[in-house]
Design brief:
- The protein has about 425 residues and is of the alpha+beta class.
- The chain has one domain: Cytochrome p450.
- The protein contains 18 helices and twelve strands.
- The strands form four sheets. It has a five-stranded mixed β-sheet. A three-stranded antiparallel β-sheet has the order 4-12-9. A two-stranded antiparallel sheet has the order 6-7.
- It binds protoporphyrin IX containing FE.
- Protoporphyrin IX containing FE (HEM) binds next to helix 13 and helix 18.
- This is Cytochrome P450.
- It holds the Pfam family p450.
- It comes from Nannocystis punicea.
Length: about 425
């Protein structure tokens, strides 16, 4: 191996400057990196150097590598938030075991069990939006997605317990802003005060509520909810997950699944309301389906609208791993310890694959030329592909269909710019709308 191949690809040098640029303008800063450095570049970050790829062949190489090649990137930063047992932070055999235990409730065929709860939550929260007043629609979608998680994942549907869970989760997430997520120096309790101390207090409260729910389950008679299925799940040796592990996996699902789905829905509304003809076509296609969740989920145009939303507005611009062994990519031998990222944002905006890539055109998903998993990866890929992908897509479809068929909204602002949340990016201002019907 010569010296040239051992060198990391070119890229900016200051992690602090790059972090601030990202916090100020996440999409602009990544597009700029792609323009300046091409398909493979090094990106200094506060968690270490990341080598970032956006060409399909390189993304295929990352996602199809032997899973033991990688550990999670910057796992230490997220461990105090999610817990060491979280599936997001595991690797190797422990990660495979956790995925195996957690996968069955998220299988596509199980979505039928969740559709009605998704539609009912959407109806209740959309009907509560006041008419003729400016409201950020993302806040409403956040309430819906939290409600859906509490009903379908925690299996809680009675008023008082639902309210306590919703309050606990909302307060915990609110206390975990982008600054605390980005700067580990802020992850300290300053004599019981400050954002981290507040976050830890709320987190303990949510863990206690989840423990009460776990204790109330009978593994011999599991309910339909995901918590019950996790309590009843057994690994190959016949062992169940212990209480702490279930609590950590449930909280991981809240963090991974709450804001993501709500943000994706907000982008879909922002785009759809700017194209009245497309909205009318969607309404026509959905009307004969009577709001039946199973039939709605099969609508080709609705599917294309959701796919195009996640292409143009990926919520996690970059998925990353840490190399446990040397790895060859694009003529570079990357040493163990280096971070390796697949850049969803740059992959989704490649003109040669997506002509007029910055335009919202769901039709591109209806012309029969489906992109490969290395050209279109809103849920990441390989052994770490999003566990909740089918769940999230199902929820997006049911909530959007309910909105399009039963309500009428008008946009109350120019197209949204993208800002940084804790672990995701989304529309600044949460897409203000006015409800007319
Ligand atoms: C539109 C909504 C969502 C999007 C765009 C999204 C996207 C992603 C992405 C990009 C990853 C990283 C994949 C990788 O590293 O290759 C991920 C991981 C994950 N997601 Fe999602 N997600 C969404 C909703 C959900 C929901 C609803 C849940 C659960 C209820 C969920 C649970 C998870 C979990 C547990 C992981 C970690 C998987 C692992 O490390 O093995 N996500 N998601």
């Amino acid at each position: 191996m010569n010296e040239r191949t051992q060198r990391l690809p070119a890229g900016p040098t200051s992690a602090v400057r790059q972090t601030f640029r990202y916090l100020r303008d996440p999409v602009g800063s990544i597009l700029d990196l792609g323009r300046r450095y091409g398909d493979l570049f090094s990106l200094p970050s506060l968690g270490g150097v990341l080598v970032v790829a956006s060409a399909p062949e390189a993304i295929r190489a990352i996602f199809s590598a032997e899973p033991d090649t990688f550990a999670p990137f910057a796992a230490d930063a997220m461990a105090p938030v999610l817990g060491r047992g979280s599936v997001l932070l595991q690797h190797g055999a422990a990660h495979r075991r956790a995925r195996k235990l957690m996968q069955p409730p998220f299988h596509g065929a199980r979505m039928r069990a969740y559709g009605a709860a998704m539609r009912d939550s959407a109806r209740v929260h959309l009907a509560a939006v006041p008419r003729d007043r400016r409201v950020p629609i993302e806040d409403v979608f956040r309430d819906i997605s939290l409600d859906v998680i509490i009903r379908t994942i925690f299996g809680v549907s009675t008023g008082e317990r639902m309210a306590a869970c919703a309050r606990g989760v909302r307060d915990t997430i609110a206390a975990f802003g982008p600054l605390v997520a980005t700067f580990r120096a802020l992850q300290r309790e300053f004599g019981g005060f400050g954002p981290w101390a507040r976050f830890r207090r709320h987190l303990t409260g949510v863990h206690d509520l989840l423990r009460q729910e776990i204790a109330a389950r009978d593994p011999a008679h599991p309910g339909d909810d995901i918590l019950s299925l996790l309590v009843a799940a057994r690994d190959e040796a016949g062992a169940a997950m212990d209480e702490q592990e279930i609590v950590e996996q449930l909280f991981t699902m809240v963090i991974a699944g709450h804001e993501t789905t709500a943000t994706a829905l907000a982008w879909a509304v922002d785009e759809l309301l700017r194209q009245p003809e497309l909205l009318a076509r969607l309404r026509e296609e959905l009307r004969p389906l009577d709001g039946d969740p199973d039939r709605v989920a099969q609508s080709p145009l609705l599917d294309a609208v959701c796919a195009e939303t996640l292409r143009l507005h990926p919520l996690i611009p970059l998925v990353s791993r840490k190399l446990l062994r040397p790895f060859e990519l694009g003529g570079h031998l990357l040493p163990a310890g280096t971070g390796l990222g697949a850049c969803l944002l740059l992959a989704h905006l490649r003109e040669e694959r997506y002509p007029e890539a910055l335009a919202f055109r769901p039709q591109r998903f209806l012309d029969g030329k489906h992109p490969t998993p290395h050209e279109y990866l809103p849920f990441g890929g390989g052994a770490r592909r999003c566990l909740g992908a089918a769940f999230a897509l199902h929820e997006m479809k049911i909530v959007l269909a309910t909105l399009v068929l039963e309500f009428e909204l008008e946009l109350a602002a120019a197209p949204a710019r993208t800002g940084v949340r804790a672990a995701t990016i989304g529309p600044k201002g949460g897409v203000p709308v006015i409800r007319r019907r």
